[in-house]
DNA sequence: TGACTTCTTGAACGCTCTGTCAAGAAGTTG
DNA sequence: CAACTTCTTGACAGAGCGTTCAAGAAGTCA
């Protein structure tokens, strides 16, 4: 049974990564298939043949976005002391350097954007988003638990609550930043939050 | 100069208020004019004649949403002690009772949703959103300043920074809640934040 | 009543959208 | 080379979109 045929002319992974940028900056509804065809230099038929329909394509893009983000998160959280790393995580809500091609307005967090646009009426999107949030709080709570035991972070609140708070904070910051970032005000708010975590 | 003519058969204000609900739950792009015609029981032509095009209609709805929210906010902030009021503001990010018809999934904050969908590429939406955020931080900072002077709230951070933090928090909470609210986790995170403000 | 103004109705227009498909191109395999 | 498989291309269909508009209805005013 022959499994060969004409080879694909574009790189599937790279194309998905570029689709992340597009979907990330414009959202699901405002990105048309024609936009994708133009930006990715791949014809409609090939796009449909490779990635399925637009919704599936988008959800795959979100999953890739999150995977990249999670790798950065894990790396950042595995440092001592922890608080500077948390500050970094909060300070750059749009710092996925691997996916950012060049400068431009911040697009916020793609998971957050997906939440606003597709959740809760799209069940699959809701699942992706929920799992991402859960991963974030689990990873951050683990790190905070360790930091509480070393005495770096205050233990007057459970690490799970602190992690949940940081999720709200980073999502809020990432969203509000779309409307224009007052760097000084944002930094001063972040420092206030980080200080509150200090033992 | 006669200014009369056939009187409008529907209540403009009530119709706008009902449009808020629709736009709020589905967003701008996912709410079609036909959806509005069906839900509001007003024909297309009348809608266009009264509210202008869809975008103008939506922006008016956002402005109404915010006006109602701000009234609630001002009332809540004008209480002593302040911290329980702040807790209330954070606890119910979707508590605009006047506009909520009945139960249903939370839609988050309509200003936040607008930010995710239309900002920054829509200049007018960006202006509405920016002004709303600014009003929120101004009002909350004023209240915090008073509460700092009475000794209720800690003064180890400027009230502006605390207010900015609360904006991020309420927006993050409101957004993440769309994906399903774990009430216990959310409340514990909010209490952690409120405790951090206590003097 | 007749002139005037505004609102209502729903058909229709032009456009864009997602998704499909047939024909051809480009490989592999025997 | 011939058979087979997969990918590419771009036209196409079908649906839905926002918006306009002409004709009629319902008021006011002189």
From TrEMBL, chains A, B:
Annotated keywords: DNA-binding, Transcription, Transcription regulation
Pfam family, one: TetR_N
Domain HTH tetR-type: 9-69
DNA-binding region, residues: 32-51
InterPro entries: Homeodomain-like_sf (IPR009057), HTH_TetR (IPR001647), Tet_transcr_reg_TetR-rel_C_sf (IPR036271), TetR_C (IPR011075)
Keyword flag DNA-binding: yes
Keyword Transcription (UniProt): yes
Protein name: TetR/AcrR family transcriptional regulator
């Amino acid at each position: 049974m022959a499994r060969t045929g004409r080879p694909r002319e574009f790189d599937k992974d790279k194309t998905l990564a570029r689709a992340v940028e597009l979907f990330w900056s414009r959202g699901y509804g405002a990105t048309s298939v024609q936009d994708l065809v133009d930006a990715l230099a791949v014809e409609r038929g090939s796009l449909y043949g490779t990635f399925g329909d637009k919704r599936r394509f988008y959800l795959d893009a979100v999953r890739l976005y999150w995977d990249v983000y999670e790798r950065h998160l894990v790396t950042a959280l595995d440092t001592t002391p922890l608080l500077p790393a948390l500050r970094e995580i909060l300070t750059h809500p749009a710092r996925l350097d691997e996916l950012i091609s060049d400068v431009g307005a911040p697009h916020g967090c793609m998971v957050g954007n997906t939440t606003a646009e597709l959740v809760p009426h799209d069940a699959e999107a809701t699942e992706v988003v929920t799992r991402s949030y859960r991963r974030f709080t689990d990873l951050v709570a683990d790190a905070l638990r360790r930091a509480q035991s070393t005495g770096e972070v205050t233990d007057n609140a459970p690490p799970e609550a602190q992690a949940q708070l940081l999720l709200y904070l980073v999502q809020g910051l990432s969203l509000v930043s779309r409307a224009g970032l007052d760097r000084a005000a944002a930094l001063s708010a972040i420092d206030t939050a980080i200080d509150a975590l200090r033992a």
